[in-house]
Amino acid sequence: MPPIPFASRLLFAAAWCVGRLPLALQQRLGDALGRFAHRRGTREARVARRNLELVAAAPHDVARDEAIAGILRATGRNAFETLRIWTRPRADNLALVAAVSGETHLAAALAAGRGVILAAPHYGNLELVIEAMAARGPFTLVYRVPESRIGDGFLRLARGGENITLVPAEGNAMRPLWKALKAGGVAGITPDQQPKLGAGEFAPFFGKPALTLSLVPRLAERSGAAVLFAYAERRGDGRFELRFEPADPAIGGADIAAATAAMNAGVEAIARRDFRQYQWTYKRFTLRPPGSGEIDPYGPECR
């Protein structure tokens, strides 16, 4: 990988200062940031509103506005908690985990010896999942490379801790993932990011076609690795429960349409646990099926 720019190190130093604040203060600041975004109608607020309209969630105006307010507060908290996780020792981060559910599923998948594909959607705090897995042993993580060199350098500093191997989400990502799985290791992939055209399949997500990453199903089919969903769900006391859940076996099947639909159904079930904790500020539906006549549903008001 290329060297990390000096500007990335400066940015990380600034993040370190914020990450060292007390947790209670970080969470209050996150709530305040969310209230500000809601009150000012920021881009994140507009995208969240449009997403809820697209998936027909909270159909009444008052209910939808309340849902958006909760989403933005959770998003604000997640931002500050992420800076904390990126800049503190792993032992401090793991103290945020109050409980672990489904650990037997992970143990059984590892014992099978064919490797484990961890599908970790953007729900709760993704970074805490990464830290927890790296504390258990080598963890190979696919990540989307930021457009700027500075952003990429910062992300590599933030996520490149002990036991973590970062794999750019590019055309040759399959090779290092295959190698990790053949060795019986764990590969982490976010299943709910919109890929480029040609790198995925359109599959239903909350009843609407969404271009869906095909890397997880294809890798599962070819490697025979078990697929588990993993997420760190925020609890009412401000700490998290780390959860592992077996995925639908169809995700590893030869029918790519059925596989991507099953994967989206799994992500949707997780998102429905607590709508506030899912990444509704992300433009999930910008690319539309070719020949459908549909256009980008977000429009200039969400830029």
Keywords:
9 strands, 47% helix, two-stranded antiparallel ribbon, 303 residues, LipA_acyltrans, alpha/beta, single chain, 11 helices
What is the strand and helix layout of this fold?
Elements: H1 6-19, H2 23-40, H3 43-54, H4 61-87, H5 90-94, E1 97-101, H6 103-111, E2 116-119, H7 126-136, E3 139-143, H8 149-159, E4 164-168, H9 174-182, E5 186-189, E6 200-205, E7 208-213, H10 215-223, E8 226-234, E9 240-246, H11 256-271
What does this structure look like?
- The protein has a domain at 93-302.
- α2 (23-40) packs antiparallel against α4 (61-87).
- Strands 1-9-8-2-5-3-4 form a 7-stranded mixed beta sheet, sandwiched between helices. The chain has a two-stranded antiparallel sheet with strand order 6-7.
- A hairpin with a 2-residue loop joins β6 and β7.
- The chain has helices spanning 6-19, 23-40, 43-54, 61-87, 90-94, 103-111, 126-136, 149-159, 174-182, 215-223, 256-271; strands spanning 97-101, 116-119, 139-143, 164-168, 186-189, 200-205, 208-213, 226-234, 240-246.
- With 303 residues, it is of the alpha/beta class.
- The longest helix has 27 residues, at 61-87.
